[in-house]
Amino acid sequence: MKNQNITLGIIIGNRDFFPDKLVSESRVEVLNVLEKQGIKAVILGENETKLGGVETYTDARKCADLFKKHKEDIAGVLVVLPNFGDERGIADTLHLADLKVPVLIQGYPDELNKLNVANRRDSWCGKISVCNNLYQYGIKYSITTKHVVHPTDPSFQADLQKFLGVCRVVKGMKNVRIGAIGARPTAFNTVRYSEKILQKNGISVVTCDLSEILGKANKLDITHQRVKDHLEKIHNYASTGKTPSESLIQMAKLDVVLNDFMTENQLDANAIQCWTSLQQNYGCNVCTSSSMFSEGMIPSACEVDVTGTLSMYAMQLASGSPSALVDWNNNYADDEDKCVLFHCGNWAKSFLPDIEISNAPILGTTVGVENTYGALDGRTPASPLTFGRITTDDTKGIMKAYMGDGVLTDDELKTFGNRAVAKIPNLQRLMNYICKNGFEHHVVMNASHTSDALKEAFENYMGWDVYHHEG
Start and end of every L-fucose isomerase C-terminal domain (predicted)? Predict the structure, then answer.
């Protein structure tokens, strides 16, 4: 995971009757930890306030002004308490800066042999006071797993990684733009959603009729240089297997037009009509293009599943790796904690080491197999698993989501398409929750364990209704 583009604002709390050396020492330690993680820091200079700490209202204004100058860059704020700290100074800083970003509160632990006046910290108590004041101010914040923890402790390192995921999700979801290409297939009521609820949460949907995309694609041919370039891109992306050259050209033309639409509208993700207009009116599947988009960190879902591709985008932000839209598809024999995840074939190739461009046999039974080339075939091997789903609950007028962690396994699975076996503790309870709360049959998977970060971002900072499945 890369953190080079993450910038955190740093507040070092101080209270004047505690030893000054604690502030100076913590500054060096924290900045060293952040530098090793590739995280940029915005922090007061040591001469701008007493040792660069924040204690008084004047200190708070200086720190807030500094943060406002870097408002576009700062994704989150780390509050460091080398001693008790001044709770009002910290709260005033965040209130005046008004960044509306995640905040993580860290406090240093005391040492039993250093509880004298010259060395004691009292951060255990000070952290409670800081949190109390932020609560009073209405400022959202996160806390570390251990109440007090040294910045070099492995527990804090894990908390920091989770916090960075929270920051990426909150920042990335503020102004996300999704392309909805085509009409929702009539048979898929399950993927209906509310554009208005999404927009209220800062998520824009840009629509386009599928006929516009297909019309432009049909005007291209193999003599067009961009078609040749995209055809080469497809050949370099995956084995073409037995896919006819004519189908590969169709896929390349479609890919050209889809990329133009994404660029022209400055979109972050897309959801494309597939079943079954594309096959009947154009003659191939869009799966390969969708897979290439997702692998390139532009999530792409089928069946115009807008909130599905939004879920893919959120998981991508949390983990720094591609996501895939899947069906909760089959039980796995009589194992109550395992199931089969499946789709015709649009998963990013990060999930498919044996990836091959093929066709879609199920869809082919109604539209003709010859019209379904472009679907991918491949098995996902064992890996960590985060699963989840965002949706709009239109009757309640809210955003809601569920998420959790499990694993993908190497258990035997003889079938076609994109497939995987998932093991999730208390899977039956999860399925019960999904059914009772009206969630879709589509879910999103990511090869990570980042459900904690997603929960914190959605529930604490974005105010959504969240169920976190824990085994």
Answer: 341-468
